[in-house]
Design goal:
It is built from 4 helices and 6 strands, in the order ββαββαβαβα. It is of the alpha/beta class and about 130 residues long. It has one domain: Protein-Tyrosine Phosphatase, Chain A. The strands form 2 sheets. The chain has a 4-stranded parallel sheet with strand order 1-3-5-6, with helices on both faces. Strand 5, helix 3 and strand 6 form a beta-alpha-beta unit. The model has no long low-confidence stretch (mean pLDDT about 80).
């Protein structure tokens, strides 16, 4: 974890990301955060690949449950274009953005996390 409610995932260069990998990462993220809502910070490696099954699995609502937002850091323009295309096809229940610096990504996740926590606090006071 980077900090409270922000989980960091690093993918090595030239990695083919499998459905099983993402499902395991989700379990680990929930474990690290004690099943609290969390943000995901991803540092993607160069030339990571994935298959259609991964895209289909990621688009299922149950695989984003509990996740507040996703920030991906990668300074490679080609990767940015692929990731943007991927997100447009799959859609997401969570805000998802791509950043060219780590600090911009983490600052954005902190704002998303804090806004989510504030909304949760306000909703519990109303109920």
């Amino acid at each position: 974890m980077v900090e409270e409610q922000i989980v960091q995932i690093n993918f090595k260069d030239h990695t083919e990301i499998q459905v099983e990998d993402l499902l395991e990462l989700r379990k680990i993220s929930l474990d690290w955060t004690n099943n609290r809502p969390y943000c995901t910070y991803v540092e993607s490696g160069a030339f990571n690949t994935y298959k259609r099954e991964l895209r289909d699995e990621m688009s299922k609502p149950e695989n984003s449950e509990g996740r507040i937002a996703v920030a991906v850091f990668n300074s490679n323009l080609a990767v940015k274009l692929i990731v943007d295309f991927f997100w447009k096809i799959t859609g997401s229940d969570n805000p998802t953005r791509l950043f060219s610096t780590r600090e911009e990504a983490l600052d954005w996740l902190r704002k998303e996390r804090d806004a989510h926590n504030q909304d949760s606090t306000n909703n519990s006071k109303i109920a």
